[in-house]
Design brief:
Number of strands: 12
Shape: globular
Distance between the termini: 57 Å
Strand content: 5-15%
Number of helices: 17
Helix content: 40-55%
Radius of gyration: 22 Å
CATH topology: TIM Barrel
Strand order of the largest sheet: 3-12-11-10-9-8
Order of helices and strands: EEHHEHHHEHEEHHEHHHEHEHEHEHHEH
CATH architecture: Alpha-Beta Barrel
């Protein structure tokens, strides 16, 4: 089923978005020139009010200054040059635009998303005000091999497998980086940047990791089996994917160079390197991580600098991943949405490692919880300055509570 409107006659195209589902031919949905002018048409009154507040000249200047200050905190933290632990606090925010809105009017969707995030801006934590758009991560590089997008309900687009086995994937070589999906990704990126309010950054990860893409391009468990039965060919396939990922990343970053958007992650963190979605790594044994994954990660690190590796795995176990990642010079941080246990839980084998930075969620809603967290052995006993950086995220019930939490955190940080 096609998603979006393509039945009404429209004016000459200026941008378009490729929409197709499994088994269908690509459909280009044209957008009218008027869709790309800054305006408040189609906004609710609440959204319009929030946007007007965001676009106040004084507030825009203040937001831009805040971004520079927050970036500096992250630079010091990830350089292990500070004991400070950056904290992002998220209060409840209105619903953000639907996928259809993003597909039909990316510029307006950016503005509406920024308006919806106004409560989070108002808290004033270590969050870089940012809009995240990561729909292309799993479809651009696979499209170079001819893979077709699929749209699972409740999920970002993925692709249908286009190879029967790893040998066939290696025989495909390394295709040129081009085609309509890439062109439309860049079109949406450019359009989103035009709609981005001053004082906001755009998080636009253009690709997932070679591991995640390989798992999509091969059927069922074929990729995981080939790691054991065909390690040489599987490594070559991953190297081909890594090089294509690099081309896409550099192309996207050429549009973002020199702006706050260049190095902002989907969490609103400034990471001086590359954050890479690597959920598939939890399926690797320690030996496979060392023998196959680490060389691929080091290959990417040589092109993009230090890596921040994201993986979420529940209910699958993942505590075996971090001990091996600490052996890779190119890995500087790991990131999960699922709390600290995978990294520093009582049974985590690398809980006391002091090199790779950790980014995770924690409940810091009361002073007692802050004191307990900061006194926890893997937090208290592992140095941050000259050692392991930490970045945390917590939720708040309201903007006022978010401000209270962040003020308390600042006092704790100041008092050591």
């Amino acid at each position: 089923m096609n998603i979006g409107r393509n039945s009404e006659k429209q004016r000459p195209e200026t941008q378009c978005f490729l929409i197709c589902a499994a088994g269908e031919s690509p459909v280009h949905i044209p957008l009218r020139r008027a869709d790309f002018r800054p305006h408040t048409q189609n906004l609710t009154r609440t959204e319009e009010k929030l946007l007007n507040n965001l676009f106040c000249e004084e507030d825009m200047s203040r937001n831009e200054t805040c971004i520079e200050e927050i970036q500096a905190r992250y630079v010091r933290a990830f350089a292990s040059d500070s004991d400070y632990i950056p904290l992002i606090v998220s209060p409840p925010c209105p619903d953000q635009p639907s996928r259809e809105e993003w597909q039909e009017q990316p510029e307006m969707a950016v503005r509406k998303t920024a308006a919806a995030l106004a409560p989070k801006v108002a808290v004033g934590s270590d969050w870089i005000p940012s809009v995240n758009m990561g729909w292309f991560q799993c479809i651009v590089v696979p499209s170079f091999f001819g893979a077709r997008p699929a749209f699972p309900i409740g999920s970002d687009p993925i692709v249908e497998p286009c190879f029967r086995n790893t040998h066939e994937a290696v025989q495909a070589g390394r295709p040129s980086a081009g085609g309509p999906v890439l062109e439309q990704m860049l079109s949406v990126l450019d359009t989103a940047l035009r709609g981005l309010p001053a004082g906001f950054a755009l998080s636009f990860p253009p690709t997932a990791s070679p591991f995640d893409l390989a798992q999509l391009l091969l059927p069922a468990d074929e990729f995981l089996v080939s790691l054991v039965t065909e390690p040489h060919e599987t490594s070559q396939f991953l190297y081909n994917l890594a090089d294509l990922c690099t081309e896409v990343i550099l192309l996207a970053r050429s549009r973002l160079a020199g702006t706050a958007s260049e190095l902002v992650t989907n969490r609103g963190i400034h990471f001086p390197g590359l954050r890479l979605a690597c959920d598939a790594l939890v399926n690797f044994s320690p030996d496979l991580l060392r023998g196959i994954a680490l060389p691929v990660l080091q290959r990417l690190a040589k092109q993009h600098g230090k890596l921040c590796i994201h993986y979420c795995s529940k209910p699958a176990p993942s505590s075996h991943v971090l001990p091996v990642l600490t052996e890779c010079e190119g890995v500087a941080a790991v990131d999960t949405w699922q709390g600290p246990d995978a990294f520093i839980g009582n049974d985590a084998p690398a809980r006391m490692q002091d090199r790779v930075g950790l980014i995770f969620d924690a409940d810091l809603t009361t002073e007692e919880k802050m004191v307990s967290f900061l006194g926890w052995e893997p937090i208290r006993a592992v140095r941050r300055k000259g050692g392991r950086p930490l970045v945390l995220h917590t939720s708040a019930a309201s903007v006022d509570e978010g401000r209270r939490i962040f003020d308390m955190w600042q006092a704790k940080m100041a008092n050591g």
